[in-house]
Write a structure and sequence with these properties.
Length: about 400
């Protein structure tokens, strides 16, 4: 792994962003809305938590880089779709032109820019120019080698992990806390002993993509390097965090990675319209905190983070992703009210009443009648998973 020169000062963390990343846009009404990047950056700026010298531009991934995780035929189809040269019907077998992943102009360039942003983050960390790097435009974990899926055209994390292995020869731990199973990344490295994938997600019994069962452990030489923690619908903070804290410590001891890549979907929150989990902002304080500690304990601080899901772009995502960046920079996590300047700027545009505080309202939802049953069921699942880890 490369080291930065003595004449070049290492940054603590870099924030990868370019205005061009906003071009990944399916339609005005599609739930995947990159306006959440604008909202998050504006909130961080108004908190004086993000300065221009921390921002580095996202480049476009080359075809050669995309081929690390995608087929040439698929890349060619995406390019044709970008130029309007195929019909939605012709693209459906490749997962494009569907309701989830409709065709839009310059789709290839916009998708390759998101991948390039994650590769930029990788190089900053692996070359020793920064301890941590964040690309909130990334995290498109459902993309497959030859098919788009679940709002994801190219899979930036899969490309980035293959890139890390090829360029830096490192062992990679991928941690996915999106409410949806990180299927595309898992299957890409299912037989790879040098990549460990971990996904904590809502059970596929109720939610897309329907995978991520506890018995999906990897295969061949990669057996025992895939870990899934499918949690029940209506799971709340305490159960979610117990699974995360307990499992990650054991997995780190077991796998001993050189670098951590975390996918930070913000759709496990109660207010998210596409999922059924009952998380609050508390989990978005703790998830990055634990990842940060583990990166320093096991990986000399090497931590790359990407975005992911998150479909309440007004009340949830900006707060959750701001907390992630603040944790990366050792900025004390805020309490109390959000900046009045941010609230007054965005409330007129928001279709819902903004939450004005960093913490969620105390009575955001009614008590769950099945809380004890759900918690017990999740604990049984965790115990079974831990047994598998210890006996691999």
């Amino acid at each position: 792994m490369a080291k930065h020169s003595q004449n070049e000062q290492m940054k603590h963390a870099v924030f990868v962003f370019s205005e061009d990343q906003l071009g990944y846009k399916f339609s005005e009404t599609h739930p995947f809305n990159q306006k959440r990047l604008v909202l998050t950056i504006d909130l961080l700026r108004k908190m004086n938590a993000l300065s221009n010298d921390s921002i580095v531009p996202a480049r476009i991934a080359t075809d050669e880089e995309l081929l690390l995780a995608h087929d040439q035929r698929y890349i060619d189809i995406v390019k044709k779709a970008s130029r309007g040269e195929i019909t939605p019907e012709a693209g459906e077998s490749y997962g494009i032109g569907t309701e989830d992943t409709p065709i839009f102009e310059n789709m290839h360039e916009a998708s390759a820019r998101l991948v390039g942003g994650t590769l930029t983050a990788v190089d900053y960390v692996m070359e020793g120019k920064a301890q941590h790097a964040l690309n909130l435009g990334g995290g498109l974990h459902h993309g497959f080698r030859g098919k788009a899926s679940g709002f994801c055209i190219y899979n930036d994390s899969s490309v980035a992990i293959s890139y890390i292995k090829k360029k830096y020869g490192a062992r990679v731990l991928y941690i996915d806390t999106d409410a949806h199973h990180g299927d595309g990344v898992q299957w890409c490295f299912y037989e790879d002993p040098d990549v460990c994938t971990v996904s904590i997600h809502e059970t596929g019994r109720y939610l897309f993509p329907g995978t991520g069962n506890i018995n999906e452990r990897g295969s061949g030489q990669g057996y025992g390097t895939s870990f899934n923690f499918p949690i029940d619908a209506f799971t709340e903070d305490e159960s979610f965090l117990e699974i995360y804290r307990t499992s990650m410590k054991e997995i780190m001891e077991f796998f001993k990675p050189d670098v951590i890549l975390t996918q930070n979907g913000a759709d496990a929150h109660y207010l998210d319209p596409l999922t059924h989990l009952y998380g609050t902002m508390n989990i978005y304080r703790e998830i990055p905190k634990i990842a940060h500690e583990l990166a320093h304990e096991y990986c000399d601080g090497r931590w790359i983070a990407v975005g992911g899901g998150g479909y309440d772009i007004w009340r949830v995502v900006p707060r959750a992703w701001s907390l992630l960046w603040m944790e990366m920079n050792n900025i004390p996590l805020p309490e109390g009210k959000l900046p009045e300047s941010w609230l007054s700027r965005w409330q007129p545009e928001s279709p819902v009443r903004l939450i004005e505080t960093w913490q969620d309202p105390a009575n955001m939802y009614e008590a769950i009648p099945r809380k004890e049953e759900i918690t017990d069921k999740n604990q049984q699942m965790l115990n079974k998973a831990l047994y598998m880890i210890r006996n691999t």
